[in-house]
Request: fold
Amino acid sequence: MTPTDRRWDVGIVGGGIVGLATARALAARPGTSVAVLEAEDRLAAHQSGRNSGVIHSGLYYRPGSLKARYCVEGREAMYRFCAEHGIRHERCGKVVVATDERELSALAELERRGRANGLAGLQRLGADELREHEPHAAGIAALLVPETGIADYPGVTNALAKLVAAAGGAVALGARVTAIARETGGLVVETARGRVRCRHLINCAGLRSDRVARLAGVDPGLRIVPFRGDYYELVAARRSLVRNLLYPVPDPELPFLGVHFTRMVAGGVEAGPNAVLALRREGYGRLSFSPRDALEVAAWAGTWRMARRFWRTGLGELHRAFSRRAFVRALQRLVPALRDEDVRRAGAGVRAQAVERSGVLVDDFRIVRAERMIHVLNAPSPAATASLTIGEAIASMAADAFDLR
Ligand SMILES: Cc1cc2nc3c(=O)[nH]c(=O)nc-3n(C[C@H](O)[C@H](O)[C@H](O)COP(=O)(O)OP(=O)(O)OC[C@H]3O[C@@H](n4cnc5c(N)ncnc54)[C@H](O)[C@@H]3O)c2cc1C
Reply:
């Protein structure tokens, strides 16, 4: 069915994993019709298809936060979904490694958070025990997290789209939303594939969610600031340096996890991502630039307040973006045997990070209601892990707010 054929109960902007999980949860409700509008010519073209592919455990997040709740619940839902739909996945576990004394208190805090979030299998490792799990890792202590795993998120996104279509919904590609207006009893959405009418709208536009909110006449009170993450991969002959997933202790001030090693479901081991302020929202190259995106980042007071706080970290990340040697040095803290020639450049992803006017990087998921609309304004990592639970939560919020049958 094409999206212009009828008036839908709910239109969803964005064919990433969050939009499709939401569409699937809504389409499963008898009597609710759903159309997903995706700008690109394929699903999962941005964050959902350009990430580390990790099923996060729920270790990092403040107990009681949406991230903690949705990640822990969503992780198990994701394992089940992948098993049911024949999507590649593996519960392989990971280790978080402290490489010097100063990181021990942060490692202890991670363990405390993990236990508060209900992680049952956490295990503290000494240096020798660490090497039983990861023979090439160096560290003075580590945390073993057996609940962590890996998955094929584009595979999940496409499986969700099939379920939406099977339930009578529409998933339209090449349907960039360019304008949103109100009409009696609903909304008129202008897209590159024509005019779509719906009674309600859910904005899951990721890197452009703030813009879509503004198109709909809603002031999001924040801006999406894009942070690019570059990846390297281990050359085939050196993949044995890493067995599973190997992470540093993250800086508790930042929402990013630090460059790590990740075994991928398709084979191979990736290293990264760093986190560099990007001058283009969907800019995957080091020199990617969009005048509009760059101007918006520069004009937002929150960017400068954030920069004042984190300029030193930011410069380090920028250096690592252009210097392979600096990138490898960061990785060598975890695996000292790694050499420059053991890695080659792989892809990149761009994170949609909401930043408030005050310069605060929004830490938790942020989902905001407006008349006839719900806007997902911050859904960074672990939103792929948590997507099925986020989708269910948005669907029940929608059933309530939109008075769906
Ligand atoms: C480098 C990186 C590593 C990550 N690693 C992990 C990880 O290991 N585990 C994990 O759980 N999470 C991870 N994440 C986070 C995770 O990928 C995201 O949180 C998740 O994919 C967000 O999904 P989404 O659907 O909200 O956004 P997206 O996948 O970005 O989807 C938004 C969609 O909206 C579309 N769109 C935008 N504007 C319009 C418009 N006007 N009209 C129509 N469509 C529009 C876009 O084309 C896009 O397809 C990572 C993210 C990045 C960037």
Observations:
- The radius of gyration is 21 Å.
